[in-house]
Amino acid sequence: MLKLSLQNPIRLFALITVIALIGIYFGFKLPISLYPQTSRPVVQMNINYGGQSAKEFIRRFGANIEWQLENIKNSGLVIESVKSRYGHNSVSYNVSYDWNTPFAQALKEVQTVAAGAKGMLPRESADSISVWQWNENGGFLAISFYGQKQTLDELYNQLDPLLTPELKKIADAEEAMLWNPESKEISINLYPDKLAHYGLLPGEVFRSLDFSLVSLTGGEVRLGTKSANIQIPSLLQSQSTIENHLVPLKSGGKVNLKDIADVSIGKSEKSSRSFKTDGKDSLILFANPKSGANVKRMSEEILEIIRKQEKLFPEGVAYKILVDPSEFIRNSISNLIKDVILAAFLAVVVLFLFIGNFRNVVTAAIEIPLCMVIAFIVMKYTGMNLNLISLGGLALAAGMNVDASVVVMENIFSRQEQWARSNPAQPMSLDQKIALIFSSVQEVALPIMLSIGTTLIVFIPLAMTTDLTNAILGDLAKAVIYSHAASAFVALIIVPTIRLKLMRDTSLSAAPLEPFLKKVESTYIATIQKTMKLKKAPFVLAPFALAAFLAWVILPRLPKEIVGTPDTDWIFISITSPQSTSARMMENSVQEIEGRATKLLGKNYTYTFVQQHSDTRGMVMLRLRDKSFMKQAVEMAQKEFVNTPETYFYVDAWNPAELPLPSMNHLEVKLAGKNYDEVRNSLSRLNFMVAEKGDYNRLNKTPFDPKATVITFTPYTYLNHQLSLPDLLEITTYSSYGKSPGSLTLNGLMTPIRVGLADKRYESLEALRAYPIKSNNKVIPLEALGTFGQLDLPSEIYRQNGIEQALLTSTLDKEKEGNWESLAGTYKEFVEKNKTAITQGKDVSVEFVQPKKELFEALSQIKVSLAISLLLVAFLLWMQFQSFKLVGTILITIPLGLIGAFTALYAMGSTLSLNSALGVILLNGIAVNNAILIVEVYQQLLAKGLSGETALIEACRSRLRPILITSLTTMLGMLPIALGLGDGGKILQPLGIVVVFGLMLSTFLSLVIIPVILFEARPAALSETPSTESMPTVPAEGEGSEFEDSVWQ
Amino acid sequence: MKTTIFLLSLLSLEAWAAKPQVSTQKLELTTLKKTLLYPAIVKSRVESNIKADIDMIVVKNHVSLGQRVKKGDTLLELKQQDTSLNYNNRFIKSPVDGIVAVIEVTQGQYVTRGENLLLVNEPSKLFLKLELPVAHHKDVQPGLKVQLTPTTQAQVTGIGSVTDSVFGTLPVEIELSPDLAKDYIAGSIQNVEIILGEQQNLIVSEKALYFSGEKIFLPKLVNGKVKKNEVTGKSLSKGQFEISSGAQVGEEVIVGSGEFLKDGDEVDVAKKL
């Protein structure tokens, strides 16, 4: 193929141009997301079961629903687990699928089960079913709006018509809406004494409202030749129609609702949420992308809408962009481009310094963009998307890709130099040029293919990993494979063809570093000559021994994580005040803390964003001016905000751009048994004992409720009275959280209606017993109509895969996180030893679950991949060289690389993560390349009959420059990644460190050690004439040649 | 070097790490009232519900709503429908002293036999009537105090001796003095608390307690350090816990803290309740 292209370069250039254009086009068309999918698809279904106990709901419906969810797998999908949390009055089912399940299908299956469940549940429960899915990897956009002059409702009414219609048009958004945290409800609070006066029960009032809310269809009537539907709209259209609603009495009369209840429209009881930006009440615009959509485009389109509509905003209305995934992606893309340009620039500089001919240099550098566009084409066809991980892979490969071209260019150049020396002042004909290029390429083709092959083959085991490992590394590995594989084609076909075009003359041009290089070369040869005859054994054993020793000493000391976290500028202080009894009280508390925080940080923050979640929980967030100040800011805030008896704090950095990973507990203990009370008691004892030991400060019990008391009310059914039993039963419902007959459209908004009791006293058991009911002209307490009982039934139940369980989990504080493995070991023993104390001898099983299971499995898979990749490299080398000795010699470069890698990871305070493990895999593939170059040429020279010493010296001398060039370009190309510069830099930093410093040490040591091991004291087979005789020749002018003088002259 | 820096930073963490802040309370005997809470209806001792004894037509209403009348005052004038019978108009007179509480009829209205015409009662002579479930009949005697509002009290004046066959309740009456009666309206319903007795107990907030299975622990402050003792007792309403054993009067106990307290932890008392 090379011959063809050399003969007819125009065809090739046309092809390259087309490929480049297609590649660039696809590059723009690839979907962009923040991250690849790094968590299992999880779908949640919530059902409110109202007045039933958890146990009863499970018996009647819950077990069946769980069975249906677990059996979704019959449709071909794989369910990892179904976790059910039955709380006081609602259940949440958490369905976790296998890794590769498409999100849309995962959601659909649960929705099908939900639709089926709706049919069998009582009406309130059926109406309350909700199914949702949260895709963390998509990223999300959040913007807060606030005004100086208007209330939040006014602001919402002003902005909603400007923004919502436009937001609905965003194709990439799953959900994009402007949200008013102040949700309203219509509260109808009944007065029990007035109800009793009229002989009414709350249920009777509820039914009359329920009926009046319905819009009826009144049938059809004929209008001329057409028929028209008759509609009877709901009687309740506004607050005043509700107040004047007539409730029928048993005596035949009617009473206005306002005479027996207080009707008001206000903030719903359940919602005490609020958001404030710099102290001003705010609306939130929230958008998250559809599965597989382009989050960058979604964010940019929404921001464009806001910018366009901004001029129509009322005066004084402003907004702050809280989270913008496109910004992070933009920064990362520009980082990538900078890294690529830097890699190309450094490659050009290194080449220029070593080779000196500018045209050569530029030709080699073309490799980088060409490989990238070819990679885009393959990525498009394999359905990949551009995300921070795959972009990182492309940046990583940039430095490596240029190596092949460098070797080819360098060889062409040195052959050209040789020819020029032998034929001074003689121009080269086209045929001669073509022949020179062809033979130069032929000479290095095999070593190049082998080098690229070994680099790529190490990734094959990664393709066989599953779950988390594949999720995180898959995209990176594929990006590297596609672009690096392309580099063979580019280096062996395209680059020489371009070189031919640029080959104007054969004049020598000295490299700028030529004198220095010559000195290095001569020093190196002198060193080889001294060392090559030394004893081999120490040089073979020392690298392995040292690498093993460092692995044993350093690896356990390195902190372990799945993947690094990028820097962020958001700091948050979470506030919990369990004693707060109202939203107002919490608001004051949060405001005070905001004041303290802003004073503490002074000029170091730009604005604040405050959230209030409920009466007892809130959060203060501050955006720092400078990300590098984060660590200091967190320390200062942790010192300032210390837990008090009334308020608990938690301070940390918040990174919306962090790679979302499956949640990882540092401690997890599972308890199960037939008697759930005993299981819960064991959980309580276990929690107490672990808390007493003191290492885990964030213990979570599932179920949480330590005491489970359920009050039952059983009416006397034998009583001969006219009161409705269901209505009697329901009194307790109205006294606690009320009941909703439906919603009303008020001012254009669907506003729910809630019917409850006005007198909050009826929330206590004593007051409930005294609920007044009028009958036979007497006022009877509810207590006389039935029995109130107290049962120790579990009011909260946790089930996994149909089995009732209890869980104790915890994460560790940052200071102790590094120690998680040894702590887990200690606590495992502790739990084993104290099993009897925990269970009190009852039939309860206690299982200590491997903490951070996913990480553990991921690291195990990586270890297996590493072992397999080494075997594959060895196998490939054996196929080429057919000699165990030569394969072993080449493989010595691997421990040399590991020595550099481990030392650098420790010295730079980096981590043992999936990326550093990938770095080791990659390093193994690259480090052997240098040795391959030397060994291959050495074998060739030996075959030509040179003596062992001459062949070795010549092989080392001739390969020194290409080895130095390729190693330097790879190292310098990856240096920005190793330094963790720019947004997202921390994610790939461990990988960069391993490759750069591993390669550095491996290169310099193997240049000395490989010759020692290779050397064989063999006599020459022919007379010792170096270079010219043993090198391929270029045909002289006029000699038979198949190449024509054509357009090139 | 790195290890040294790591150790130093750990030490410095220890140095400035504040002691947990807690709030404490000295245990004292609290008076708890044992009560029964029931709804009661306000009734008048003097109440006359005047009904029609035959079919008539209302000719004239001689009183207005709220008017004070004496026994024998004319309230209503009615006539028989069949004028051929030529009877004289009937005059309904008030059987009691009181006020006109309810007027059910209007001039010209035809009323049938047994229909309500007016209600006359004495608003200054009121009492409360409640229905007591028979299970408590031994607990309640005449003379027991009754808490009407946080500041007003009355007494049980009478208990019935025949149980209602439908509801299984006994009627109980609570007399209202003329002073108290001013604040009540006949026919209204409200909850009253019958005070059965008083008890002195050691009470503590449930939030102060630590649970381990079925065991309950109360953290005490001993020489500035935490010491958890096992206690027994029962939960009362409103998040209170009555201690029956394991704690003494005068002991300082920790009722609030920001974190889990281990035995031996040194604490800072932020608040004494």
What are the low-pLDDT stretches of chain A, counting only 5+ consecutive residues below 50? 1024-1049
Shape of chain A: elongated
Strand order of the largest sheet of chain B: 2-11-14-13-12-15
Q: Which percent range describes the beta-strand content of chain B?
A: over 45%
Work out the helicity level of chain B: under 10%
Provide the succession of SSEs of chain B. Answer: HEEEEEEEEEEEEEEHEEEEEEE
Secondary structure: number of strands of chain B? 21
Report the major sheet of chain B. Answer: 6 strands, antiparallel, barrel
What structural class should be given to the helix and strand makeup of chain A? alpha+beta
CA-atom Rg of chain A in angstroms: 37 Å
Assembly of the depicted chains: heterodimer
Main sheet of chain A, how many strands, which sense, barrel?
9 strands, antiparallel
| Average pLDDT rating of chain A | 82
Instruction: Please give the radius of gyration of chain B in angstroms.
Output: 33 Å
The assigned structural class of chain B equals mainly beta
Largest interface: A-B, 53 and 49 residues
Judging from the principal axes of the Cα atoms, what is the shape of chain B? rod-shaped
| Termini gap of chain A | 22 Å
Any key phrases for this structure?
heterodimer, A: 1049 residues, alpha+beta, 9-stranded antiparallel sheet, 34 helices, 30 strands, disordered C terminus, B: 273 residues, mainly beta, 4-stranded antiparallel sheet, disordered N terminus
